[in-house]
Amino acid sequence: PHHPAYLIHTSGSTGHPKGVVMPGSALLNLLNWHHRTVGGEPGTRTAQFTAISFDVSAQEILSALLFGKTLVIPDEDVRRDASRFAEWLEEMEVQELFAPNLVVEALAEAAVEQGRTLPRLRTIAQAGEALTLGRAVRAFYASAPGRKLHNHYGPTETHVVTAHTLADSPQDWNLSAPIGRPIANTRSYVLDGELRLSAPGVVGELYVAGEGLARGYANQPGLTAERFVADPFHPEPGQRMYRTGDLARWNTHGELEYLGRADHQVKIRGFRIEPGEIEKTLTDHPDITQAAVIAHEDRPGAKRLVAYAVVRDGALRPEGIREFSRERLPEHMVPAAVVILDRLPLTTNGKLDRAALPAPDLTKTSVGREARTPQEQIMCDLYAEVLGLPRVGADDDFFELGGHSLLATRLIARIRATFGAEVALRTLFEERTAAAVAARMDTGGPTRLALTTRERPEVIPLSHAQQRLWFIHQMEGPSATYNIPLALRLTGELDQEALRAALTDVTERHESLRTVFSEADGSPRQVILDPTETELVLTPTTENELDTLLTTAARHPFDLATETPLRATLFQLTPHQHVLLLVIHHIAGDGWSLNPLATDLTHAYTRRTNNQPPNWTPLPAQYTDYTLWQNELLGDQNDPHSLFTNQITHWKNTLKNLPDHITIPTDRPRPTITTYQGDYTTITINP
């Protein structure tokens, strides 16, 4: 019984064919279970719908021939036309049918439209895809009381391993059906990433074990070992279980619910999304008969959800479908584009062929009027640039075209750079179209103060972030707590003079790197020093001493009143091996600042090695301009009507009931002087 019975190839979700070696015991277990539960008298007419290359065909053929039934085979033209298939089923008096969900949906739709009840068709077993129970399927079943609908689940590697039979009241069916309980002599586990059993209601990966398992993949021992793993829950050693790659959970009735493929899960804008959830929501609409959702990447890094829908004749337009989904789904799950199809493409096995879904035609997304003013036209161009579209009309809705909050912030930055004006995020959500946003800017609506180069006053204040760090510096004294080190290993011939000149170029370009912080009458001020040659300390060393020297140099404190906040040390290991250590104080930069710092230094060094000065584009604003902009925007802290005062008052009121001290039990008391000596530990929290 455990010898190979047949070999069948499947691509599954990977697209790479692999041969599944199935033993006779798995097939016999399935057929005996099928005969006991689904039944059917000798002579029952069974349709062999599925192609011979689909594993369900073995269940169709042998469940009929082993138990004396009659197998009726449609030709290819009938299989592919739902209307002709419904007519053929009635003509041939078929009583049993195995078919994937999309075929069942199309058959029900055609039968309801033609007024065919197919009273002889008493049993349908659906397998291969998630079962959805739309209006047509319910009406089809309501027309023939007593007709059974069985929802079977089982990958090619296991045959059917779970089953659920729907009740006789179609009006009470939910939109989706569970895949049920394990069939005879099989076991099902829902496990987390650590192979621990998931609690009811908690999503995990579905593993199956027992008589239904294949021997493995032909000539692919590595893949076999990856997918067929040891069963830690069976008392007998040597038992295996199969990783299905499907997501599932146990419901409160002790049945399994299928939630889609783990590898169909997509991540867009930081959200993990199950396309199946969106598909189920769309088919809730009475005029949508079928739906599919994929993540389409029309340009590198720009993923957007695209929905494909089969609708009743002329009943819906794409914008209506998006509006329907927006009312029922969170923003990140609303499809950015909708494509209406006559039918969803199917594989030869009757499953959805995702690879054959057409790309959305984004050139047809704009239906609005042309811009009437130069400002409107510029705004339309910015909309199109951010959305990745060829063009956008003046009255086109930013969010209807696939915009979302992250793209909105990008649009605000482009508006700021182009118009020199600040548009609040709320304005984009209120106005939505290029014409409306442009009009708000024209009428002096609630736009924010633009960040531009400003005239420098005699006393330059600190930004709020600088004030915070200056205060800590005054309280602690010189400290390395806020040092940000960047160490670069340089291999090859190094031009030390060019490097020194490049460092000088960078500090000349960025005022914040040559700013010190003095105090007058108890208040700090920025003092921007004139450009001078930046010091580059050369220290010969060895690999053994390098770590110690790097640590010591990185921890050397800054005196913010007298010392500029950038320090450069060059450690020479050999004539062709150097390590450049740049240490910047947090008052002049942050982690994000290291990238432009390294980029500018690289450019300047390359130019200096060719005896040329840098030719970079002048900066549109310095950090000092930002400081002045921030102070002007927030207003005087002594003004009771300023934005600054309003914010402080709000947070004082919000936080006023918090305790003065938060006492957390620890294994030792806090020291008087903070040491900042920390570590981390990794834990796993149960879902």
Mean pLDDT: 87
Could you say which overall geometry the principal axes of the C-alpha atoms support? elongated
Q: How would a crystallographer describe the biggest sheet?
A: 7 strands, mixed
Radius of gyration: 34 Å
What percent strand?
Answer: 15-25%
Brief characterization of the structure:
It contains 19 helices and 28 strands. Strand 5, helix 5 and strand 6 (123-126) form a beta-alpha-beta unit.
Write the layout of secondary structure elements.
Elements: E1 4-10, E2 18-23, H1 24-37, E3 45-47, H2 56-65, E4 70-72, H3 76-79, H4 82-91, E5 96-99, H5 101-114, E6 123-126, H6 135-142, E7 148-153, E8 162-165, E9 181-182, E10 186-191, E11 204-210, E12 216-217, H7 221-227, E13 228-230, E14 240-250, E15 256-261, E16 266-268, E17 271-273, H8 275-282, E18 288-299, E19 302-311, H9 318-328, E20 337-340, H10 374-387, H11 405-419, E21 422-423, H12 425-431, H13 434-442, E22 447-448, H14 464-476, E23 483-491, H15 496-509, E24 515-520, E25 523-528, E26 536-540, H16 543-554, E27 566-574, E28 577-585, H17 594-609, H18 623-634, H19 643-655
Parallel strand pairs: 3-4, 3-5, 5-6, 6-7, 19-20, 26-27
Antiparallel strand pairs: 1-2, 2-12, 7-8, 8-9, 10-11, 11-14, 13-14, 14-15, 16-17, 18-19, 21-22, 23-28, 24-25, 27-28
Helix pairs in contact: 1-2, 4-5, 5-6, 10-11, 10-13, 15-17
Question: What does the model show?
Answer:
- The protein has 687 residues and is an alpha+beta fold.
- Helix content is 31%, strand content 22%.
- The protein has 19 helices and 28 strands.
- Helix 1 crosses helix 2, helix 10 crosses helix 13 and helix 15 crosses helix 17.
- The longest helix has 16 residues.
- The chain starts with a strand and ends in a 32-residue tail after the last helix.
- The mean pLDDT is 87.
